[in-house]
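Notes to self, Parkin coregulated gene protein homolog:
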Amino acid sequence: MVDIDKLDFEYYLPIFCDALNETQFPFNVLAREGTIELMQAAKERILNVLPEVILGMKRALRTDKPEIIMNVCAVIQKLATVSPIVGLALIKYYRQLLIPVFSKYKSSQKRYKRGEIYYGQRRRNVHDIINQTLILLDQTGGPAAYVEIKYAVPTFESTYHNA
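result:
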């Protein structure tokens, strides 16, 4: 077994991010958890492959499937918190990630059980996961992040920043 710190992150991380659009078990779990573990080990080295990571997440978001959106949200949340430098570098990609899907789900009305799936051991609602992700991005990115989030998702209201 190879130590995770010795892996070539610039090679493996984009591959795992490309697999985020998998819906079959165990591939979906492997893609999500593998991506998160690689990010946790890579920290600032993510900056070298951030454009490729974003590209993989954009492809996954285009599928418009709630379980895939939730997996991408988990990865975005890890990106925002893995390192302050990475969190700030992520701001310039907010529009690419948030506009296609997040704005649609955030602005649509919650329908009873619509968008709910089994995620791990419990039921989760895609609207709630998106809202948690937006709040985390707002917290970790500062005022510049709020401006980008508000542009991409006009219905977003910050509890941390006033416009």
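- The beta strands are 116-119, 122-125.
- The two ends are 50 Å apart (CA to CA).
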